[in-house]
Design brief:
Two copies of one chain form a homodimer.
Chain A: H1 2-23, H2 29-39, H3 46-57, H4 66-86, E1 91-92, E2 95-96, H5 98-101, H6 104-124, H7 131-156, H8 162-187, H9 192-219, H10 222-225, H11 231-234, H12 240-248, H13 251-262, H14 271-281, H15 283-302, H16 308-322
């Protein structure tokens, strides 16, 4: 599988370079220095790579979609910057969040600008006939706002079902991955059925990715993860793990879990006790199974891409996401 | 001039109805109820009307541009919602601002959604050949973010020149009015020279409009204005009036004006004393002259529209903006 990792690494460097160029020569510095601070970093660049890989999967070239790939990363970072304000998060990828490093106004405005420039870039790659690609981008944006709104509502609501949670992460995370696939497939000149297959790949991969994110929050190594371990519990977030644990628990465990809801989070020194509850209830395994289920769905969707060589890269990507540690 | 006022009133009602429809059937309510709260109100609807009037001025129909008009109003309200957070403003058009009525997260997210839906609407009115209209819209968005960033920087910077102020309001306000004109003219099927003329009309009208806004902050009647009188002074904003006063003042007056900068604003009971300084220095008259100068420029640009009947509406609009009281 090493050749795919090499390709990913190579393209990630290219994307990084393009992102540096996004901010060159822009003024005022009060806006674009903080924007570059958050964008020019060793991020995974997963979404732009998916855009490129999907353009290729339908027989197109990476070069059909570089600007759209940059647009996808800008859109993603817009959501991170604004979400970090709403979550009052201190750190992101090991760095201070924008509103902590600068101030609230700067963070709001940088988020807005990243979105604005994202549109600049998505417009670069489309031909006059491809107006609908801007429509796909806009739909992704609308969905991600709706998903984030649900996420905030769930924070203060006492009862949230696993189904509601899945609907929320679909909107907040998975539909943006679907969008990346769809845009890449459109720009690569894919057929309707190819586009549909890749959209399904993206949607299911996105759900798997988010559940994996919930799992890593408690199982990752802090230095590697770049965030505080157990942060979701500390903030009282209703993640897959938490809702599944609540569903399975009884007696003392249920009481302890309900305290997270009522107290809107726990203290950092309580994280290990809650991790033990998760382990006792088997929800870490449940999450792993769920991740595999959605990954399998995404791989199944790929089967309609006839050329094996074209789908290999996306297959590798899905497998490596299951194995990620950050 | 009454027939133009009647037309404006009629179109304003139509725009209001279209805006109500924007939010019908959208979920979740946690996002779209606050969005409708801020959008469904007795606003001036000036920007959408300018889009329509410019479509007509080049020989097009209002119906060429209704969705773009709604998009312009959504974009404008996106800026208001986020600006109100950054300014920590309590009221807007006599209503509580979103972050006061709801919370910070809701206000950030509603702003983001209004922008997202603005793109939905701008995409509705364009043909495949009009991709550049989305580009104009995006350029307007980028400029308004840059202008707002400058505005925030100027708040804490001790020295700001009148030229820097004009550059800031050009980006923050005037280029969005220019954008409305340009989009309306494009959608109405205007020629290159017509589009250029209407862009110049919009740019200069936008500058006049913003200086008028600065002037109304101190001269308006609170009940009609919907905001606290002297709010700019209370917040220590470096408006046209303030910078012009600083430029013209000496001795005791200069000292008092510099106190506004050093103390980052004044107390509400000091507003009338500062108004007196403005009057003594003649800066209310200066602002009036400046407004007339830019309005004259905007009217001059209109002269290249050959059909008198088509430009009458825009002429009336420019005149009535000079006379506005809120």
């Amino acid at each position: 599988m090493n050749k795919f990792q090499d390709l990913y690494n190579k393209e990630r460097i290219k994307i990084d370079k393009k992102i540096i160029n996004v901010f060159k020569g822009r003024k005022p510095a009060s806006l674009y220095e903080p924007a570059a601070y958050i964008m020019v970093n060793p991020g995974k660049r997963l979404r732009p790579f998916i855009v490129l890989a999907c353009a290729k999967a339908v027989g197109g070239k990476f070069s059909d979609a570089y600007n759209a790939a940059v647009a996808a990363e800008l859109l993603h970072n817009f959501t991170l910057v604004h979400d970090d304000i709403m979550d009052n998060a201190d750190k992101r990828r090991g760095l201070l969040t924008l509103h902590k490093r600068y101030d609230l106004s700067t963070a709001i405005l940088v988020g807005d600008s990243l979105l604005a420039i994202a549109y600049e870039y998505i417009l670069k790659d489309i031909s006059p006939k491809q107006k609908h690609v801007v429509g796909l981008f806009t739909r992704g944006l609308v969905e991600v706002c709706e998903g984030q709104s649900l996420d905030k509502v769930f924070e203060t609501r006492e009862h949230v079902t696993l189904e509601e949670y899945l609907e929320m992460i679909k909107k907040k995370t998975a539909l943006l991955v679907e969008m990346c696939c769809s845009i890449g497939a459109h720009l690569g000149g894919g057929s309707k059925s190819q586009i549909k297959a890749l959209e399904s790949y993206g949607l299911n991969l996105g759900i798997a990715f988010q559940i994996q994110d919930d799992l890593l929050d408690i199982t990752a190594q802090e230095a590697e993860f770049g965030k505080v371990i157990g942060g979701d519990l500390i903030e009282g977030k209703k993640t897959y793990l938490f809702l599944k644990a609540l569903q399975k628990s009884e007696g003392q465990n249920k009481k302890k879990l309900m305290q997270v809801v009522l107290n809107k989070g726990i203290q950092p020194d309580e994280v290990s006790a809650y991790r033990q509850i998760y382990e006792d209830l088997g929800v870490l395994t449940d999450a792993g199974n769920e991740i595999e289920k959605y990954t399998a769905k995404s791989l199944k969707a790929l089967k309609t891409i006839p050329d094996k060589k074209n789908r290999e890269l996306l297959e590798w990507l899905a497998f490596s996401l299951i194995k990620r540690t950050k």
